[in-house]
Design a protein that fits this description.
alpha/beta; 5-stranded parallel β-sheet; 44% helix; Rossmann fold; 5 strands
């Protein structure tokens, strides 16, 4: 089984990684961690790349530290619209599911559309959302 986990540095994405870890402990799983640098008209900067690498490596190290074999954890850094990049990576990597955290936004913030909501609408693979209230 292949699982794609979007990581943005938030506690919500870390919680999604913990859910992926929990699944990996019980099944043979390849975990793909993805970070999307959402450039808004600017080109990708070296510091953006370095920050993304650091973030993904910290998450990978945490998974490995909890018993996941390092060869079963890969990282991807993409550039562009986060939702579109996540959906495209899921298709290209032929993942079985996406596990993504949700911020639990309401009201006006929810109406503008979250990355999670866009991934849910566009994905052709199973999407598991992790509620901010989920206790793991």
């Amino acid at each position: 089984m292949k699982i794609l986990v979007p990581i943005d540095g938030s506690d919500f994405s870390k919680k999604a990684a913990k859910v992926a870890l929990s699944i990996a402990r019980h099944h043979k799983v390849e975990i793909i961690l993805i970070h999307v640098i959402a450039t808004t008209g600017q080109e990708r900067k070296k510091w953006m790349e370095e920050g993304a690498e650091k973030l993904l490596n910290e998450c990978k190290d945490a998974l490995v530290g909890h018993g996941i074999d390092a060869v079963n954890v890969t990282t991807i850094i993409e550039n562009g619209d986060p939702a579109a990049c996540i959906v495209e990576a899921a298709e290209l990597k032929k993942v079985d599911r996406i596990i993504i955290g949700t911020y639990g936004k309401t009201g006006l913030k929810k109406l503008t559309g979250s990355v999670t909501e866009k991934v849910l609408r566009k994905s052709k693979v199973l999407v598991m959302t992790v509620s901010p209230n989920y206790k793991i």
